[in-house]
Write a structure and sequence with these properties.
Helices cover about 35% and strands about 25% of the residues. It has helices at about 15-50, 55-70, 95-100, 115-120, 175-210, 265-285, 290-305, 390-405, 410-420; strands at about 75-80, 85-95, 125, 150-155, 160-170, 225-230, 240-245, 255-260, 310-320, 320-330, 335-340, 345, 365-370, 375-380, 430-435. Strand 4 (about 150-155) and strand 5 (about 160-170) form a beta hairpin.
Length: about 450
């Protein structure tokens, strides 16, 4: 053994002490690997989380929330920039977010540190905000902060906004690893934001196309009408739901509503074919509704091979001070009747088979007297569908809402039914409502 192999006291270190040192170093290395692996797993989970969202507002909130959790920051904010580089929105999360929200419409002016990131969109780390030469302080009521990590978010080649994180929960400054993780998240966030914006553009275009296929609702003496179309929120897709209204040659109002099975352009094409044919056939046949459906089913079989769809047709003939509802159904949900006494019930009757099954099967007509002030609603099943629940549960909920709004204006009643779904629709919804009002001419 050489002298270099001996310790400071002249004696060689024992094999046990060498093993303990190696074990300590090995344990420290394994802990670093585990922390790095855990952080990478958290980053991947965060990327998947924000990528699943298509609603832009939810995407932005998830970005700041996940960023704050990844680096254990007490506060996070996302400043959205306009075309001129000015802040157009500021979304916050964590400690002090409520205080920031109370500042109202006050947005950063971009003259201090936040503006530095706007002018030079590169990652920014500050260990002492109070003494940084570019700091201009915080507005009154803003929560106090001492450290900052800022990262730009790019959507393609444009700076969409900046992600700001302040004050690690355990104290200390933000690290190189923190910056790397947040920068990686910001890159994925840019893709998620672009996807959400493209989704919104497609959704609006799809909804506008669908609405252009639907008719305007007229104003009639003795009858108030209101219609609503709501596209599915599951995906921006064209659907096969529609409503229609015509006055027949005998001057009787006729409500028509249906749902073509399937989605996409094929369903919208079939929907257009059925609605146009139905108008002509109803105008020619006039009554009874069952006969109109029979002819429609026969023509569709002969010309288009019998596409599958549910349809309901209802005449509203004058009867005393009210109306007589006469309807027939091809596999569709029954009408919902709401009376002035705050009672609501579905008019359950034989719904028959959908169109496209067997055009030779007889269809039944049904009748119900509608007193003045009552409302009848026709709707597609998207209004009452809830994943994991039967239609009966959804129909009961709709009837309860309709009863509560029985004396409210007709648009308020319809809005209440739609808003009860909290903005989530697994399928398209078409809804057509008619309220019996005092008439100066009871001929229709």
């Amino acid at each position: 053994m050489n002298l270099e192999d001996k310790g400071p006291d002249g004696f060689a270190p024992s094999a046990k002490s060498l093993g303990e040192e190696n074990l300590d170093r090995l344990e420290q290395g394994l802990q670093q690997i585990a922390r790095a692996h855990g952080r990478m797993r958290d980053l991947l989970d965060a990327v998947l989380l924000i990528s699943r969202e298509l609603d832009l507002n939810l995407v932005l909130h998830k970005i700041i929330e996940t960023a704050r959790q990844l680096v254990d920051a007490r506060y996070a904010a996302l400043g959205v920039l306009g075309p001129d580089g000015e802040f157009t929105d500021l979304i916050t999360s964590g400690f002090g977010a409520d205080q920031t929200a109370r500042l109202g419409d006050t947005l950063p002016h971009g003259t201090g540190l936040l503006g530095a990131l706007v002018r030079d969109p590169q990652p920014l780390r500050v260990q002492d905000l109070a003494h940084h030469p570019q700091a201009v302080g915080f507005p009154e009521g803003h929560p106090p902060m001492s450290t900052l990590l800022g990262v730009p978010i790019r959507v393609r080649s444009t700076i969409y906004g900046n992600l700001y994180l302040a004050d690690k929960a355990g104290g200390g400054a933000f690290t190189d690893d923190d910056e790397a993780v947040v920068t990686a998240l910001a890159s994925a966030a840019g893709v998620a934001i672009e996807n959400a914006r493209l989704y919104e553009q497609l959704r609006r275009a799809t909804e506008e196309f669908q609405r252009r296929l639907l008719p305007d609702i007229p104003h009639l003496d003795g009858l108030e009408l209101h219609a609503h179309y709501q596209p599915s929120t599951e995906a921006p897709r064209i659907g096969g739901d529609w409503y229609d209204f015509i006055r027949l040659p005998d001057r009787v109002p006729c409500l028509m509503l249906g749902d073509v099975m399937g989605h996409g352009t094929p369903a919208a094409t079939v929907m257009s074919q059925i609605s146009n044919m139905l108008r002509v056939i109803a105008f020619d046949e006039q009554e009874p509704p069952s006969r109109i459906l029979h002819r429609l089913d026969t023509v569709l079989h002969e010309l288009h091979g019998g596409p599958m769809a549910t349809v309901i047709i209802a005449r509203l003939e004058p009867e005393g001070t009210g109306r007589r509802l006469q309807w027939a159904s091809a596999g569709h949900l029954p009408p919902l009747l709401v009376t002035p006494g705050h009672e609501a019930r579905y008019l359950h009757a034989d719904t028959g088979l959908p169109l496209g099954v067997d055009p030779d099967v007889p269809r039944a007509d049904h009748e119900e007297h509608l007193p003045a002030g009552s409302t009848v609603l026709l709707h597609t099943d998207g209004l009452v569908e809830h994943r994991g629940e039967s239609l009966d549960v959804g129909m009961d909920e709709a009837a309860g809402i309709a009863a509560t709004y029985a004396s409210k204006p007709l648009p308020a009643l319809v809005d209440a039914l739609v808003k009860a779904r909290a903005g989530t629709f697994e399928d398209d919804v078409a809804l057509l409502a008619a309220r019996i009002t005092p008439s100066t001419n009871q001929s229709g």
